[in-house]
Input
Amino acid sequence: MLDPVVLAAQASGELQAGLTAIGRGIVYGGAAIGPGIGIGLVVGNAITAMARQPEAAGTVRTTMFLGIAFTEALALFGFVLAFIISG
Amino acid sequence: MTLLGIDFPPISHVTRWPDIFFKDTAFGINKTVLIYFASVLITLVIFFAAARKHQLVPRGVQNIAESSVDFVRESVIMQTIGPEGMGYLPFLTTMFFFIFFINIFEILPFIQFPGNARIAVPLFLALLVWFIFNIVGIAKQGFGAYMKSSLVPPGVPKAILPLMVFIEFISTFIVRPFSLAIRLFANMLAGHLILVTFAILTSAIWGAAVYFKIGAAFPFALLVALTAFEILVSGLQAFIFTILTGVYIGLAMHPEH
Output
C-alpha cells in the first residue's frame, strides 16, 4: 500500500521542518554578509586612523565601537529573525 | 532537535526557567528575576559602600567606583554630550553597571545565564532611553525645533523632502529604541547559545565510546576561550548601550547644523 498521497502527507511535516531549517540558515547567512563587510571596513579604517594619528586613538576607538554597534545591529536583526521564523 | 546524533535542546529550554517563588502567578520569580534583583543590589552596594567611608586616597571598592565614574565621564559623556551633559553622569554610570552585572552572570559558575538574554530588561531600558532623549530634545529646543532638527536633514532638495522626512522619522523614533534593545538582547542570547552549544558538544563527546573521549578536549578548549570572550562582550555591550544613550541625548541637546 504505497499510496503517494498518503506518503506525501506523512512527509510534509518533515519537509516543512527541513525547509524551515534551510530558511533560517539563509536568513542568518544573508543578514551576516553586509555587516561582515561593513565591520571590516569600519575597523580597518579605524586602524589606519590610529596608525596615522596615535594621539587621537582614544576618540577613534570610541567612534569605532559606535560604528561597529550600528553595523552589527543589522546582523543581529537577522539572528533574531531566524529564530522568529517557525515552520 | 537532533543534530548529528547530539540532542540540542529547543531554544526555549535554555532561556526559560521555572518559577521559584510565587509559582504560577503573574509575579512569579525565576532565575532571571533573581539575577535582576542581584544586579540592582550589587550596583547599590558598590556605590553606597564606596561613598560611606570615602578617603582622599581611594582603596578597595572606592577605587572601583571612582575609576568607573571617571571612565563614564571621560569616555562616554565628554565624547558624546560635552561638559553640559554632566547631569547625566549618575544615570549613565548606574545603567552601565546594571547592564554589566546582568551580563556578567553569563559566565558566573552555577548561574551561567545572562539576564539580558530575555528581552524584558533591554526593551524596558531602551524605552526609558527613548523617553529621556525625546523629553530632553523637546525641553532644550522646543517641540517644533526638535522635530525639525531630527526629521529634516539640512541641505536636502525640496523634491525628495517628504521621503527623507519619512525615512528619518522611521530611523529616529522607531528603529533607534528597537535596535538598542535588540542589540543587547541578541548579543547576550547569541553568546549564551554558543556557550550552551559547546558545553553540550563537550558532554556528548565525553559520554561517547572510550576512544572518542580525547576528542572532547577540542570543544572544551573552545568553551574556555569563548567564556573569556564573553567577559569582553559583557563589558562591551554595557559600554555600547551607555555610549549610544549618550549619543542620542547629545543629538537631542545640540542639533546637527
Q: What stands out?
A: Helices of chain A lie at 4-52, 57-84.
